[in-house]
Amino acid sequence: MQCPVCLKNTWKNRGTQLIECASCKFVRAKDDYFLANFDEVYSDKYYQRGDYFNYEEEEKALKKNFTDRLHKISAYVASGNLLDVGCGYGYFLELARTRYKAAGVERNHQTAEKVAKRLDLEIFGGDFLEYTSPKKFDIITAFDVIEHVLNPKEFVAKCNTLTQTNGLLIIETGDIESVLARVQRDKWRLINPPEHLNYFSRKTLAALLASTSYEVLFVQRVPFWRTLRQIVFRSIKRDAGFISKLPNLLIPLNTYDLIFVGAKKCKSV
Ligand SMILES: [Zn+2]
């Protein structure tokens, strides 16, 4: 498989589940993980003991994070059309629609329908690459999404086609070159293919964005809130009976391994 960042095709192993591009150092899951049944991976189970111990229990924590991110985004683009890709249960859209004319895309059809009904917003259910819109967006947001997609170059190119020139693309993802990821290696909590297929660093993400006519405006190492249950679930990477007995606490963290990136569309690809 060609490297989506530099388009070369020379890979070397990086730990037991990942490979690294020998040319640009982009990291991705080994080939076999790309053959997973993704309808199964992203069925309703995904939100319960998949990537999340219990996604609904994370609502308060996620909304605290999204309030912070929304504040940062609005410093760059104060109004206009916003598209949230991978909108999940719509927690970000619920906040964003107070400022922007908001719409969403969600891979899971039933989740998309539920969110559309609950928030009375336009939510496309299905693969983002199949989404079309008569209007161009001023902002596209993708929180914890790019690590999941089969081809991140196609993903960013699709964002480009849906965005006004000078429009903003916001991406939040893990940083495989962060100190924590390098120290923990295979044990880093964000290594969980086939859910996470792509593992960017500031450098490889900037290179990908540049190759799709985006200019990086900022990269921040952002703090985040999580529930205690989610933290434990992610740390041990499995469901254990005691997790649901833990108190429902919200905890602020900064592990310096998440990057929040804003980029401006320079021209159409
Ligand atoms: Zn490469």
Automatic annotation (TrEMBL):
Q: Which GO terms describe its molecular function?
A: methyltransferase activity
Q: Which CDD domains does its entry note?
A: AdoMet_MTases
Q: Which UniProt keywords apply?
A: Methyltransferase, Transferase
Superkingdom classification of source: Bacteria
**A Pfam family reported for this protein in Swiss-Prot or TrEMBL:** Methyltransf_23
Q: Name one GO biological process term.
A: methylation
Write down the InterPro entries for this protein, in alphabetical order.
Answer: SAM-dependent_MTases_sf
Q: Which residues cross the membrane?
A: none
Looking up PANTHER family in the UniProt record yields:
METHYLTRANSFERASE TYPE 11, TRANS-ACONITATE 2-METHYLTRANSFERASE-RELATED
Q: What is this protein called?
A: Methyltransferase type 12
Q: Which source organism?
A: candidate division WWE3 bacterium GW2011_GWC2_44_9
